[in-house]
Each structure stands twice: as C-alpha cells, then as structure tokens.
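A reminder before we start the practical. When you read a complex entry, don't treat the lines as separate problems. The point of joint prediction is that each chain is placed relative to the others, so the output describes one connected object in space. Small molecules and nucleic acid strands, if listed, are placed in the same frame. In the example below there are four entries. Take a minute to note the order of the lines before looking further.
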Amino acid sequence: MDEVTVGILGYAILGLLATKPRTGYELAQAMKTPIGYMWTARHSQIYPELARLERAGLVEASVIDGPGPRDTKRYTITEMGLRRLEEWTDSPLTEVARSEFMLRVRCLWLLPPERAREFLLTQRRYYEKRRETYAYEEASFALVEDEVDDPSSPYFAQNATLRYGMMRVNDTIAWCDWLLDRLERPSSRRPRTGPNRAKY
Amino acid sequence: MDEVTVGILGYAILGLLATKPRTGYELAQAMKTPIGYMWTARHSQIYPELARLERAGLVEASVIDGPGPRDTKRYTITEMGLRRLEEWTDSPLTEVARSEFMLRVRCLWLLPPERAREFLLTQRRYYEKRRETYAYEEASFALVEDEVDDPSSPYFAQNATLRYGMMRVNDTIAWCDWLLDRLERPSSRRPRTGPNRAKY
DNA sequence: TTGTCCATGTAAAAAGTTACATGATTCG
DNA sequence: CGAATCATGTAACTTTTTACATGGACAA
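Here is the predicted structure of the whole assembly.
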C-alpha cells in the first residue's frame, strides 16, 4: 500500500485537526471565513475529503451522539497524519497569487473618476471591517500570552498568521488612500506640460 | 439573444486586450507570471476562452501570418467587450483570500525551530527575488511619467497594481524577519514592535 | 542535432462552487 | 409555528491544472 496523495485541502483539514479533534461541521465553520487562516472550503468539499483522509489512515472517526438523520462523527488526526502534515509544512512551495481586486484596479482607467473613487471607497470599507474582526481576534490571544511566545505551541503559529492578516488589511487600506488621493488630484505632482488633461 | 455570462478569466483577458490587441500566445505569456497583475492562467485555459469570447462578440480575431501548423490569430476587443468590461470593473466584489504560505505557517509549531527557520528563510529569499522583479518593472514606468499620472491612462492603473505588489513583498519580508526574530529568542518578553505596529 | 521559443489546440483529471436533500433541536 | 442552527451527505456544474499533440524557425 503506497502513500495516498493529499492535496492542499487535505492538509488544511489536517492542520486544523492537529490542534484538536473536530467534527466535519466544526471544520466547515472554521473554513467558512478566513479569519487569520487564509483558506476557505465548503462542507460539500470537506465531507468527502474527510472520508478520503480516513481511508488513507490519516484521520480516525468516532461516532458521538448528535441531532439529525445521520451519525455525528468526531475526527482525530493519527500519528501517520501528523507525520505527513509535518513533512508537508516545509516542503517546497510555489504560490499562485490571485487577486480579483487588483484585476479590477487594472481596469479602473476605463471608469469615470467618480465611479473609480466609489469603488475604492467600497473596498476600503470592506477592509476596515476585516480590520475590526482581526482586532477582536487579536484581543483573545492576550489570554494565552505564554503560549503565544512559545514556538512549539499552536497559538504561536496562529498568532503569526493573524499578525500577517492584520498587516495586510492595514497596508491595503493605506494603499486605497494613496490611490484615492492620486485620483482626486491627477497632475498635482508636477506642473502640467502635455496636452489634453481635461477629459472628465 | 441574451448576454453570455463571462467569468473572471474572461474579464482578465478582456482587461489585457483593452490596452492593445494580442495573440493567444501573448496573453498566455502575460498571464504566466503575475507581475503587477494578480492573476494566472495557462494557454490551455486561454485558447478555449478566447473562442468563447469571440462567439459572444466581445473580441474579434484577425489571422496574421506566423509559424507552426495552425493560423496565428490576433484578438481585438470590441465595443461591446469594452462596455461589458467597464460594467464588471466596479460591480460588487467579494474575494476569497487564499494563501498556502499562511497555511504552512499555521503548522510551523510542529517543526523543530531549525526547520521552521529554514522554511521562513527560503520564503524570504523568494520574496526578495520578486522585489527585484518589481523594482525592474517600476523603472520602466519612469519612461511614461505623464501617463502614470493620468487616471484615464492604462499606465495609471497598471502602476497602481505594481505599487500594491511592491508593498506586499516589502511587508511580507518584514513579517518574515519579525517571525524569525521571535523564533530565535522564544520566551523573552520584549516590547512589542511588530511590522504592523504604528506604521500608518 | 538538440533544445528553446513561437504558436495553437484537445483531453483528462483535480479542485472548487452551487444546488439538492434530510431531519433534529432551540429560540422568538 | 417558522426560522436559525446543528449535522451530514450527494449531484451537477464550473474552473483550473496537467498532459498530450503538432510543427516551423533559429541558435549553440
């Protein structure tokens, strides 16, 4: 029996289970919004993947009682699962950067400045809300300060990703302001020389 | 005849064609690496999508001579394509943040500090290389300074995305340094001076 | 002559989203 | 008594990746 290949989704699940056992539903909740945890998945993806991981012997399920027509199962990571997760963690990584936001920004020159401005303000509001959520999360780490400072504690790693998220939203907001400023005063950087500026 | 629905990939292509006509190959080159342009696609995705866009009347193809067994086609965006692209640009946007890097970081607590350190240094080197590429790109904008300041010029928007990319790599490098420092001196209680602290 | 770049396509597989489906409990 | 939350699954569809396939031009 050779090693079953595990995809990113599988490792994302194993990563959550490494901290504590969870049900499929709890995993789905955790992966619904990327709070300090930059990955998302729906329950329709998670349940089949859990079954796969179980067949591969990387997780184990135990039936617990719960509501509904089906069994409620709590999944625990196995020794083997932990080993595979550890291997994956520092294996070579090549990432594909995908940002629909930047794709839109690249087309902003097509819009009249007022619409471009509105668009950026809407995005800015979105990132402000994220900042608030992150700030709220951040406060909860104050309760486990010792673990946050210990590199072998999951809180250490979790806190590091939250910091990254916080940095990102702050910078994105600052960038929005920078671009909004440039939109409002187009040629204020230098005295105008060329033709045709007054289009809008 | 009702409007054919266009996906992100379609708009990414239209966004590139809005600046100037290109062949499928040129589009594939442009979308291979996300230089100041945060989206990627392979030629196997681009060619069928171009055919779809053509059937929908959003782009037009003209055969030009070239090598190989098949015709070389140059695609131009149509008036209708431009209209659809403009509509899409500031339509409601909800983004899913996906970062395999942060997924790995969340598991760093499983690794011995030395391996965690090595992993972060490798990532840091990767982002340094990106920074160099961006710096190179940035220099080319100096040649079109007037357009960069004009919100109705594609260079304005392109430069804005490049700035965003540059900011991102700089901050990611700073964040790596912050975490490396925390890894090396685990439980020393020093004043909190993270990368996101009091910058803006 | 071997390899890389130009140039275009198709096929198969994997990953992700949306929709369908069931049923218990708890809160207003 | 209806809506939300808990809880698990499948089916259909879309998107993305990987692999297969062809062939000319040009350089080491």
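Discuss with your neighbour: The CA atoms of residues 65 and 177 of chain A lie 52 Å apart. What might explain this?
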